[in-house]
Design goal:
Chain lengths: 585, 186
Amino acid sequence: MTEASQPDTVSRKRYQRERKAREDAERLLEDKSRQLFLANEKLSSYANDLEQQVSERTKELSEALARAEAAITARARFIATMSHEIRTPLSGMLGIVDILVTDEIDTEKSQLLEYAKASGESLRTIVNDVLDFSRIDAGSMHLEREPVDLRSIIVGLLELAKGQLGDDVNRLSMTIDTDVPERFWGDATRIRQVISNLLSNAIRYSETGPIEATASVIKTNTGTMRLTVGIEDSGIGIPEAEKTRLFKDFSQVQNPLTKAAQGAGLGLALCKRIVEKIGGNIHFHSVPGQGSRFWFEIPIDVVGLVDRKATKKLPSLATSLVGTRVLLAEDNKINQKVLGTFLSRMGCIVTITSNGQEALDAFAVGKFDVILMDLAMPIMDGFTAVKALQRIWNIADLPPVAFLTAHVVQSLDDIGEDVIVDAYLTKPITYNELQTSICDLLDNARGKDAQTKKIWQSDYKDGIIPEFEDVRALIKLISPEVAAGIVVGLDKATLLNLVEDLVNSVTEALVKLRAYKRAGRLDAITHQAHALKGASALLGFRSVAQILSMLEYHNEAYSAQEFEHQLKRLESEIDKIRQALKVDQ
Amino acid sequence: MKGIIFTEFLSLVETAFGEDMVDSVLDTADLPSGGAFTSVGNYPCEELIEMVTVLSNMSGIDGEKLQEDFGAWMMDMFEREYPGFFEGKTTSFELLEAVDREIHVEVQKLYPDAELPRFETERTAPDALKMVYKSPRPLEHFCKGLIRASVENFDESASINRCPNTSGTTDVTFNITLEPKAINCD
């Protein structure tokens, strides 16, 4: 029998053992698969839970975010409203205190009133800072776009600072690079606010030693300009530990020079926010015991509407203006008189109107060669008038138009887009500028082959032409470039009349300005200052114009003390002119 | 200890000595599990030692020799059933070094409760590897068999020496030194 044919016999024991092994294995596998099933179930429930949790959390978070944002906006709005509401009665109170101070004879009571006034002033500063803060937070701080004259801002601030320093005025100095443009687009009030803050810190944290204001510009690779303005003091400096929280809200460096803390510690934080809002940066460098330098840099855009350099290059060469028919729209009587006289001297035939509507009524095609249009006028402003002209008439039939703009133009941005305009003349307009501008306008309108000839060359160099010899004192007060135009453009009698008018107007205005300030009528101050500023500048009284300009733009920011300081300066400038008039007569 | 060790041991016994020997060993040995091993179960190591002892008594072959042969058998089985672990390995040293670093890592993932021995390796010379076997189980000869088979499977030849243990622990150190192939060819 072969092996293959033998039936396989398996012992009972082995069979049972194998069966047990199989049963064990099956049980184990079943257990395992149950475990797997349960684990799987657990996992999918985790996954579901997780998804639900994520969506719930996301919902909760977005709700919380919305609530937080709403709360922030509400808070900012609340603070803004409250600050505004506080400011109005505060102004009233301070006005009353001012009156009381003036009337009070009792020294003790006067002293108390002065304390009340000082407290009120510092409260107002804080409220103003808080208001600015909340405006920035609420995104409602709107930056103006206006021509900024940095030199005038810094000079004005240093003048104000002199009041605080008393006898120590020589500590203040300024260095402004000649590259810094005369005017650039920006928000003068905000820029002034930042510089003022830095300057008052410099004064507050240094007892002695020089304080210097500097300004310079650099051209970037992209062709844009960046302005750097710095204030450097040689005061107590900033301790290392304080440096990191310097620009934080409500932080203050301990000042051993003054025992009590001053202000709310918002100044630098506010500066930082303003500068950043403008698109710049603020920095500082400080060595404890040696002093600090703060500086900020902002992008600027040069006011290039009137190419002053180009017009200045050719002061003596111009197209003959004899017989040129000019339509002038200007509401200010003094300006009317001056510009009218200038134009007549150039041989122009002038039609003077007092507002845009009158100019529109006076206009007809072929009647004028040039239109000079002031921007801010009652009844109809120059912008609206020119827009109307260009709507009514064919643009090709219209003569060249030049806008006359004061320091601030409300809507220059819009003008560039909506209205075709040939030139902007920025007040104060000198005889020379007016003449070359009109020549340019006519040249452009007539084409290159226009007949040109030399018509004017200033006799005024360092001396004075004979007619004005006996008003030498007055001419000395007038800025040289304006004086050069005046001696050619005006006769002596007209000049004296104009100056007298101005002196009287400003004297009257001084009374009004004080009354407005007491009554808190800030708009009226702006208006009054604006009205006289143009005329003062036109007559070449630069300091007067500068003070009026400061009053026009910054009176809102002035404390009663600062305001009064400016008025005192104004008075003293007017006095000088009055004295000069007396001497000359 | 994983059931596959026990079922493979019985396969070795069956291959080497026949079915009857399997029955005899299982009948004779004192096995609490009753000898009904399955590859998916877990059984005490003592039962393996008991079966080796019984087999040694019955066959007259030294227990240590049996353990070592079983180690070599298991290495062959691993290579056959789990070729993935051998991919990319070109020498026995590489394989032995991979036991702790790669193979046991994977095993631990599949069987989180497995108590794996440690195989610490160190190349003491280009042709010498020191391997320290750390385990609570007395299976050093089994371990030597694994080493032997891996050397042979890479067609190498080596001396495998067990160093005397002076540390007082149950650790066992092997010094494996490759022998030149020329000699191997003889």
